[in-house]
Design brief:
This protein is α/β, with parallel strands linked by helices. The strands form two sheets. Strands 1, 2, 4, 5, 7, 8, 9 and 10 form an eight-stranded mixed beta sheet that branches. A two-stranded parallel sheet has the order 3-6.
Length: 302
């Protein structure tokens, strides 16, 4: 009889234990948190864009996933090349070989007869030579370039069609590069309207948005040509709209490169290192945001 009561007591305790509410996401099968879709947003800033490469290297080293890339201007250039094969070492090697003459095709004839002092053909050809697929839809990582419709004054998101053409349009700094006719529109640099397009990443399904702002410090006391004037004007516009646009990001990374000139291609290594440093500084916040999202999703499933 005593043995039977003991057995009944054992089953009663076992039953109560099985009815306990699981504590935290460890109760999920496998004990793993759900993972958010992470969007990386790369802002405009001409030669300062080498800092984007350092940020990407740090994210890769820390195994932070990048599921979507959105870029404006130079951010679209760096983003497209990385989206093709997701290899930061190859990206860095490509960047070290990149010089101003590889992407800017100045010409007297262009200045006199066109709508910009550079055509943009070199930039488009450079992208075509470095990205092994033709269309955005075929990139390894989903990608979008942001441009501005010059006629209508609205933002244009390019997520389909030729990669090289999209990057050229997104990078067409008004007055410096000629506007680009693409998809039935006349397009210029996306930084005119949206230099930190975090909302674009959100609209395309990113749960966590990491944005990189390389437009810090617009001061420039070395303006000696019409090119400098146009670059500085666009830089100021981009910095002003970025103040509002970057608020849509969950984490903002701002490399310390505010004194690097927009066409200074001699500071590559320094910019890359600044990107690495800034990303590492933001890493605890990035990981906490990802884990927090996972905990919330796990709790919803329990």
């Amino acid at each position: 009889m005593k043995g039977r009561y003991s057995l009944l007591l054992f089953f009663a305790v076992l039953s109560l234990a099985s009815c306990r509410t699981p504590e935290g996401p460890s109760a999920l099968p496998g004990g793993e948190l759900p993972r958010p879709r992470v969007g990386l947003v790369l802002g405009g800033g001409a030669a300062r864009g080498f800092a984007h490469i350092g940020v990407i290297r740090a994210l890769e080293q820390e195994k932070v996933p990048v599921d979507l890339i959105v870029g404006t201007s130079v951010g679209s250039l760096i983003g497209a090349i990385y989206a093709a094969d997701a290899n930061s070492f190859e990206l860095e090697w490509t960047a070290f070989k990149l010089e101003k003459d590889n992407v800017i095709d100045y010409g007297i004839l262009s200045a006199l007869t066109g709508l910009g002092v550079a055509r943009g053909d070199k930039l488009e050809e450079f992208v075509r030579s470095k990205v092994p697929v033709q269309n955005i839809e075929d990139l390894r990582i989903p990608f979008a370039a942001v441009a501005t419709d010059l006629n209508r004054g609205v933002r244009v998101v390019l997520d389909k069609g030729p990669v090289a053409r999209a990057v050229r349009a997104s990078s067409a700094i008004p007055g410096v590069f000629q506007p680009v006719e693409h998809q039935g529109k006349l397009l210029v640099d996306g930084g005119v309207l949206d230099n930190i397009p975090a909302s674009v990443a959100r609209e395309r399904g990113a749960d966590i948005v990491i944005a990189v702002d390389i437009g810090e410090n617009v001061a420039n006391y070395n303006i000696t040509s019409i090119i400098d004037v146009m670059l500085q004007a666009v830089t100021i516009m981009g910095a002003e709209n970025a103040k509002y646009k970057r608020k849509d990001a969950d984490v903002l990374i701002a490399p310390k490169i505010g004194d690097v000139g927009m066409l200074d291609f001699t500071q590559k290594k320094r910019c890359m290192q600044a990107g690495i440093d800034a990303a590492r500084l933001a890493m605890p916040e990035i990981k906490e945001k990802i884990e927090e999202w996972g905990r919330k999703k796990a709790a919803q499933k329990l």
